[in-house]
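Input sequence (628 aa), recorded before submission:
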Amino acid sequence: PESYFYYNVDIRTSDKGGFQDTMDDLIEGLSVHALDTMYNVLYLEALGIRYDVDKADTELSGQGFSFMLASGILVGALLLLAAGLVIYNILKIAVSRRIGQYGVLRAIGGEKGQLYFLVTFQVLLLCAAGIPVGLLLGVLSSKGILTAATGLLSPEIFMVRDAGELGRLIAENSSGKGSFLLASAAITLLFALAAAVPAARYAAGVSPTAAMAGRRTKIRRRMRKTKKIHCFEAYYARLNLRRSPGRTVVTILSLVMSITVFIALQGFTSLLDVSASMPEHLGDYSVVNMQGGISPAELADLKENGQVSDVAAQQFSLYELDAQNRPEGIETDIVLGMGETFQIFGFNDCWMDYEFDGKLTPEQMERLKSGEGCVIRNPIPMQVEGVETGTTYIEEGSTVHIEGKTLPVLLSTGGYDGYFSVGNGGFINGVQVLVSDRLYPQLTGAAAYAELRPVLQPDADRAAFDEMLDAFCGRIPGCTAISYEQADRQMAESFEQIRLLAWGLILFVGLIGLLNIINTVYTNIHTRIAEIGMQRAIGMDMRSLYKVFLWEGAYIGIIAAVIGGIAGYVCIIFIEAAGTDVLRLTVVPVASVAGAALSAIAACLAATCVPLGKIGRMSIVDSIETVE
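Predicted structure, token format:
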């Protein structure tokens, strides 16, 4: 009947600024009820499109996107800061090692502005080589991330027919990315120049006499106390770290950035992992036929297939209400409320075992399978324009009468969870009566099944079964089949691509931190060759020297691990809020924090051992005579 016809139209407006006005005009012009309109809130929030929250009337919230955006901005800022610290550290070390040359330039008439330009121009040369390469890698990686992310979703969400059309749509809307690339290059250049300012000021402000004389900075230790030194190497390492506090802080901050980004990206990838829901499927395939149904004979033939272990099957009938709110076409004593429907489902034994395992006692399960009872799913109460619907409630332990049969209610459920549906058809509000497929034909007069869920043998040949299933669906008009295994595999592959890209970014950020460690440790050791030679001359062996520098690396790694772990946990809180729309404390990611901490400490120790081994092979005399 025409009154049952329902049309679903997806709309994407061309004028983003007038989105709500366009929707209001469409709703008024087509006389569409407000409850029949649905807003893609997450999409609107992502694009920054203004919409009427009251008219959207959805449980979905765009607040989660705000939290995700905040997390993304935080991670991006950390990346820029980490890269800026690398530039700062490299330039500061380079200026420190060439401070005598800058003193000569000042002595022969060089001005401060010229030294500023000299240091700044070094940064511009580095950016001229690095920014184009970075933009190219960024474009390639973003394309891979977008392809992997959209692979997790159905193309219908983007109002296209298939993945190919979605790819073309993405390509057509990528024409404006040139402005984003220019903005990225400008931001990178600004951060690089900002990172070069301290080193340039240091070079320009140096005194020619002091620079050429090579004076050392005096270290004043305040609040000195007399204490027993339990471990001389650890104590000496702490003194060394305080000798150059700026360099130590920069190295720790660089490691903190790497650890924070590592933990945050782990949280991002876990949020995108939809593969956790894969084991929830009943069966390996879903075969749906809502037209004529699938006969019991076809079900029996499918069970006889050698590739099949079992088949879960369900039957379904929907009854509308008449003017007296009674189901049309079936006799029952159940009095339904306004706006409800009456539905009867028939499950075979396989589906019942899956659906009600642990919910019914063995005796109740046996009665349900033998057709001596039923399960009731009550409607969801709603209020529309002051009119309440979904008010019918049938209690557990009561009895219902359907087509002359009296059925005890073995289980009664309600709420939003646990509703019965065919395929992905969703929940139709009303009273749902679940009985055995042995009793279903007696109540409805129909024996056909609406959905089958084949469960394959562990060693089944899926390719051969797919061919058989295609022939099965071609033989029965109206049949559609979905492979859960194929869909789950595609989701797992898409998530694996995202995970690999995330690990690539993690390694890149880790490389930034490692460069800072290597620069700092290498310079720290090579500028103290004469000091190391003097220590060896007065009796310190190489073992103690190794311990001193290893303690320095351990202190840097431990401090960075603690600070980075806390900062990473803050990012995780925002990321979890993006999925739950609630900003609250969450479980500490112990594995990610521990892995990042151990990696940071190991990197510090490794960066210390390599240059120290080379110096250890030098003679004491050569070490003392080395010009730093």
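Checked by second reader. The chain has four domains: 2-56, 98-216, 229-276+488-628, 290-478.
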